[in-house]
Specification:
This protein has twelve helices and 15 strands. By secondary structure, it is an alpha/beta fold. It has two domains: 182 residues, NAD(P)-binding Rossmann-like Domain (Rossmann fold, 3-Layer(aba) Sandwich); 113 residues, Alpha-Beta Complex (UDP-galactose 4-epimerase, domain 1). Strand 4, helix 3 and strand 5 form a beta-alpha-beta unit. It is globular and about 70 Å long.
């Protein structure tokens, strides 16, 4: 296949890029080129070095090209997709948009999530924008025959990212550092809600199976692991790899969303505070060979070992560290006053 990825070097897309190259597909990477050195040595890589927002320059660079699939990993609002339709209409057999499982209705009426679960998230602008993107693309498919496929990832992680529920703007390292120092770490709610973590290598298997798949045209498909975990299990697995005692401090999600300093309304109330179990029946019907094989306790060990061995992945966040201490102190003071 001839595949164009807009982006192609992020948490989700990096593994997809590697697998496409390994499988011998011709991969066009349309981005600014700053991360493409990771793919050096592949003869089937074509770099299209341009800012996607420079529509005229992009149109010039692709004017003689046609693709089996085009994927936009960095479209977040309908205007991005309006541009993509102008650029790629008539030039691709399939256009894949990366939406988000956070677009599903909150609160859920059924913890089991399928592609037919309604899309409605009043708590998170990011999710509402993704919903608007989906609606625009479905309109283009119905009215113009634009060959779209919508993919909804959930919480996907790679070897540089320790996935957690509550962390600061600089990532999760400061929470890990608190664990290593024997400090309590904030877990939203009581830690018993169900969640799904998907390693990017598993996500890539399902995703590539949708590429060039005629049965995926006009469809929305979620790609996740089948493994369900409580947040207590997530944090416990991390603590075990670190060989430290987990000292959880449970704080209601609603309280966290109202605390000043960080906005957790979208990421918690509109997402992680809800129990979700994904039904991947549709994906497995479209891609019969798909199976997620990276169990979380295995994947997180690989991630932590990589993070611990790479200081550049250990970004300190003293502001968030102090914020955690203040939240815990406020909760303790409230208990004493009751």
């Amino acid at each position: 296949m001839k595949v164009l990825l807009i982006g192609g070097t992020g948490t989700i897309s990096m593994e997809i890029s590697h697998k496409l190259l390994e499988q011998g597909h011709t991969l066009y990477l349309l981005n600014r080129g700053s991360q493409n050195k990771r793919f050096s040595g592949y003869q089937n890589l074509v770099e299209v070095t341009v800012d996607i927002n420079n529509e005229a320059e992009v149109a010039e660079k692709i004017k003689e090209l046609e693709f089996d699939a085009v994927v936009d990993f960095i479209a977040f609002v309908p205007a991005h997709l309006e541009r993509d339709v102008r650029l790629f209409k008539g030039k691709t057999k399939q256009f894949i948009f990366i939406s988000s499982a956070s677009a599903y209705q909150k609160p859920l009426s059924d913890y089991r999530v399928t592609e037919s679960t309604p899309l409605s998230n009043p708590y998170w602008g990011y999710s509402r924008d993704k919903i608007a993107c989906e609606e625009y693309l479905m309109e283009r498919y119905r009215d113009d025959g634009f060959p779209i496929t919508i993919v909804r990832p959930s919480h996907t992680y790679d070897d540089k990212y320790i996935p957690l529920g509550v962390h600061g703007d600089k990532g999760s390292w400061q929470v890990v550092k608190r664990m290593l120092e024997g400090k309590p770490v904030i877990i939203h709610g009581d830690g018993t809600s169900l969640w799904t973590m998907t390693h990017n290598s598993d996500f890539a298997k399902g995703f590539i199976g949708l590429m060039g798949n005629i049965h995926a045209i006009g469809e929305s498909v979620q790609i996740t692991s089948d493994e369900s975990l409580t947040w207590n299990q997530v944090y416990t697995a991390i603590a075990r790899v670190l060989n430290v005692e987990l000292k959880p401090y449970y704080v209601p999600s609603d309280f966290l969303s109202k605390c000043s300093g960080y906005d957790f309304t979208g990421s918690l109330i509109g997402d992680k505070a809800n129990s979700v179990v994904f039904d991947n029946t549709k994906l497995k019907r479209l891609v019969p060979e798909f199976v997620a094989t990276k169990r979380f306790d295995q994947g997180i060990r690989e991630v932590i070992e990589n993070v611990l061995s790479n200081p550049n992945l250990q970004e300190l966040d003293p502001e968030f560290d102090n914020w955690c201490d203040r939240v815990i102190s406020a909760m303790e003071d409230a208990v004493k006053k009751v």
